[in-house]
């Protein structure tokens, strides 16, 4: 975990993210502008589909007045929810790490003077002992971002596109030009859901007129035919993407965590470490008010920094080490998992603490656990994971 070379660069340039002050301003503006192209493409497709459905289909093709009114009524209801969700996903600010997680200059200087990686780990551990974090790297060290010079909160990761650490980062999505993270994850799920509903509605309402359009009995058949196939193509792509993220919501897992298992100070690697049961997992994203579950307004639970986690047996901490501790924890963890117990802030309580967490009354406290020193958390690997995921989703949408 040697970080000396990187901090020499920080001290010289004063940059904390990608694209420091030496980059030409014109180049930065061009890059920022290009990032909006996918969003403009989506907006253009929606605008064209509005013309094709409202004008070409509803007014020029549908002859029944009642049917036309029903078509337009349901279409505009779905469209409003679709655009509202998309707007919220695009323009909601990312969740930034609070300032208390930033390592002060004095501690950075100590890190520079450290003569070994073990000493660096101890310095970071001492600084992070009062922070509400329970996850660690593979070598049992504190998760530290060398670019932002801060301790990463649980589930936070560095985004190479935005150049900052983001709370509960899922991935960076080029189609919304924003990070999908704690602050807009609900909006993103609703955006996918309403986009799928929008495409299915258009496909099912146009398919009944395909015979008339194909035979040339109505004008504007190109727009309506193309509308049907485009909506069907996007619907097929959205089914897999929407279904996958619904699956992640029910498991309380991010895309990054599905590729890289989070490692806990106490309990080791556990993909389901943040899972509280399907209903609680769902409510952590969508909130407790059922009337607002499918409305794109903020109702998510928590602050993006502290999360309730599965219950582990803290008595195992007093055991010496080695196989005995591992076997003891494994058996206890299996029993507690069957009993549905979870831990928030190190306390055992069958979901009662989860409700306190929702009210902001409970915070996780650091606990101690030994894990192996084979590897360490690497920002570049994390970036590659979500970039690969995003581009695969993009390819699905385009093809």
TrEMBL record:
Superkingdom: Eukaryota
Catalysis: reaction(s): L-cysteinyl-[protein] + hexadecanoyl-CoA = S-hexadecanoyl-L-cysteinyl-[protein] + CoA
Acidic residues: bias regions: 373-383
GO cellular component, one term: membrane
Record's compositionally biased regions (Basic and acidic residues): 347-356
rRNA-binding keyword on record: no
Protein name: Palmitoyltransferase
GN (gene name): 5573543
């Amino acid at each position: 975990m040697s970080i000396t070379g990187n901090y020499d660069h920080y001290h010289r340039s004063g940059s904390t993210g990608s694209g420091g002050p030496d980059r030409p301003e014109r180049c930065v503006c061009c890059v920022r502008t290009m990032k909006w192209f996918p969003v403009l493409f989506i907006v253009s497709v929606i605008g064209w589909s509005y013309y094709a459905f409202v004008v070409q289909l509803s007014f020029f093709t549908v002859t029944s007045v009642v049917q036309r009114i029903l078509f337009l009524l349901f279409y505009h209801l779905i469209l409003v929810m679709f655009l509202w969700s998309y707007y919220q996903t695009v323009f909601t600010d990312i969740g930034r790490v609070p300032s208390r997680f930033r390592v002060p200059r004095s501690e950075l200087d100590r890190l520079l003077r450290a003569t070994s990686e073990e000493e660096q780990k101890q310095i970071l551990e001492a600084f992070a002992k009062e922070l509400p974090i329970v996850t660690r790297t593979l070598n049992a060290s504190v998760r530290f971002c060398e670019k932002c010079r801060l301790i990463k909160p649980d589930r936070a990761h560095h985004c190479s596109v935005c150049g900052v650490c983001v709370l509960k980062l899922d991935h960076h999505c080029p189609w919304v030009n924003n990070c999908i993270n704690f602050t807009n994850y609900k909006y993103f799920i609703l955006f996918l859901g309403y986009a799928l509903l929008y495409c299915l509605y258009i496909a099912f309402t146009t398919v009944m007129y395909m015979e008339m359009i194909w035979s040339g009995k109505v004008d504007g058949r190109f727009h309506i035919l193309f509308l049907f196939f485009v909506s069907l193509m996007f619907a097929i792509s959205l089914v897999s993407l929407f279904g996958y993220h619904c699956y992640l919501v029910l498991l309380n897992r991010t895309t990054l965590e599905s590729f890289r298992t989070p490692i806990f100070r106490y309990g080791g690697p556990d993909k389901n470490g943040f899972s509280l049961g399907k209903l609680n997992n769902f409510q952590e994203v969508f909130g407790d008010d059922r009337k607002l579950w499918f409305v794109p307004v903020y109702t998510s639970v928590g602050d993006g920094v502290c999360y309730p986690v599965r219950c582990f047996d803290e008595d195992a901490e007093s055991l010496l080490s080695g196989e005995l501790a591992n076997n003891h924890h494994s058996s206890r963890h299996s029993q507690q998992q069957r009993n549905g117990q979870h831990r928030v802030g190190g306390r055992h309580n069958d979901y009662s603490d989860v409700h306190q967490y929702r009210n902001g009354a409970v915070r996780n406290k650091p606990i101690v656990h030994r894990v192996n020193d084979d590897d360490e958390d690497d920002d570049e690997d994390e970036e590659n994971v979500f970039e690969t995921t995003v581009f695969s989703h993009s390819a699905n949408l385009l093809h």
